[in-house]
Amino acid sequence: MNNEYISQIAGELSLTAKQVMGTAALLEEGATVPFIARYRKEATGSLDEIAITTIRDRLDQLRELDKRREAILKSLEERGQLTGELKEKILAAATMSVLEDIYLPYRPKRRTRATIAREKGLEQLAHRIFAQEDIDPFAVAEAFVDAEKGVNSAEDALGGGRDIIAEWVNEDQHARSKIRELFLTQGAFRTKIISGKEEEGIKYKDYFDWEEPVSTAPSHRILAMRRGEKEGFLSLRVTPPEENALAILEALFVKGNGGASLQVKMSVHDCYKRLLSISMETEIRLDTKKRADEEAIKVFAENLRQLLLAPPLGQKNVLAIDPGFRTGCKVVCMDRQGKLIHTDTIYPHQSEAGASEAAARIINLCKKFEVEVVAIGNGTAGRETESFMRNLDLPEKIQIVMVNESGASVYSASDVAREEFPDQDITVRGAVSIGRRLMDPLAELVKIDPKSIGVGQYQHDVDQGILKRSLDDVVTSCVNLVGVEVNTASKQLLMYVSGLGPQLAKNIIEYRNEHGPFRSREELKKVNKLGPRAFEQAAGFLRIGDGENPLDRSAVHPESYHIVDAMAKDIRCSISDLMRDENLRSKIDPAKYVKDTVGLPTLHDIMKELAKPGRDPREKFEPFGFLKGIEKIEDIQPGMKLPGVVTNITAFGAFVDIGVHQDGLLHISQLSDRFVKNPNDVIKIHQRVNVTVLDVDIKRRRISLSLKH
Fold first, then answer.
1. 502-611 has which fold?
2. Cα separations (Å) of 261 from 130, 133, 159?
3. What is the pTM of this model?
4. Which end of the chain is flanked by fewer CB atoms within 10 Å, N or C?
């Protein structure tokens, strides 16, 4: 364990060294973030998942910095360039940019103008000029004229000397630091439309002639400008005022008004325009891209968390419909466990006869399969199908619910869907996904690549490695927060359980298929390759609803069962009685059971679980309906007040489904009567809202909405 890492991270995050040390040790042992947060509170001082993840990521960054540091030291040593002073500087570098600045003068170079000048023997001339003594540069340069080396005149010699000086300036650590600061504080993004691309690139109209400070540009605009450049519609530059940059460099390197100083000034100007400005622009573009990525990924991750933790309908007999006009509506019926038991196709939108036949079929299916809920995808023909269903003479007890079907088509064509339903076509798989998504959003959405679910902004433009890790963290967090019923869970759900992964998830399914349902958590140890470490990490998050031990349906970890046994024994009751009777639990003093390895945080968690074993942390499902008669964008007018559901949140606002096949935008300025900095502070995915229509642009299919009173 690197103690320097521990103290540095503790200082950065305002934590104690003990907290960071405990967390780092557990991570090094292979413990997962959810396991550490839930079952090792004594070791971390009750840090939450966010803090633990931050420690994990910062440790990775520091290790990466040290890895680069070691590579640089090795390279310098092999080339005989490593001095004691240089080594000290490299070891003291706290950031990657500082480290690279120190290394830059020693980095193996391609053949540059300065390299060529050195080959011509002009480095001594460069030193004479750079000293800026009272000399005549042209007279001094005459001594370096050598036709055989390609130096044909004093001006040629001075030009080569200036090239060498320009490289020195470019590689000067202090100069780079100053210019970097200038780019960050006074730099600006500048975009222009590429001539002739005005019509084709109309979606980037806001950026046809745009300027914005680097220091304040929001992530979504940085990513939009970069995408416009990548697609060939915009030119993009990132620069500060040139005169300010030149003034900084002149103050650092030009020492007077003599002839030599004039040559140095020319070198400084050349350095900035040809080398330093380009180098810094590249660096700042990368830096702002990284910042924009982090902000966009943060928004995406928060949206995904809210989506995955959406209220589940629960176990109901469901009739699910994937709507369509020309190809008809695919209908599936599922039992309370989500098992497909019937498929059909109806054509309610093509003719009166088709509608009449469809109505008879639906009524018959609802009766035959004791349907409790109808789930309708919100895509093409969704509202029309909803109207058709609501006009049927169905029992009042049957709920009709519109379901966001983003990603259902991706699932239906996936290997996962083909494995689940090898004998069904993609339309059936899509309808099943819609129905199951209503029953349990988390269990179904884990089967889909999060990028295909339809939340977030510019998800295909950000760093894909960082995005994947962040989204995997979110899915893992949500799955373990809710807990997983081991006897009904899919492989995709199980693989996100702490300590498992794809292979162990597959092995659990195979064991279940061969031996029947698990009767206890202890039985998990019989699964092929599920060893003590995996059991420790996973067991507390796996539930067995009707197992032999009542604690198996709770989040109490098996390692703590002996504590609950002792509690029940002390008040002379069974564990089942203890879980059922609040009066019995009130007799227990958790402090009595504190040990070296078990503290009050864990004991309080145990008491909460005994009160509500296996409690689902998600909110209760509430039905929702759009306004009748409003089914397409042409039906809405400014001033209308409509119910809607939040479908996506971005840095600039939120999108709301109002039932017209086109989400409306709640710009950040329209979210509240007060100033809003972060939309997630005031609004959530799946939140039901009542909005006012501000504007409708049918041609561009844009709807502006407001939540203001």
1. DNA polymerase; domain 1 (1.10.150)
2. 8, 8, 14
3. 0.84
4. C
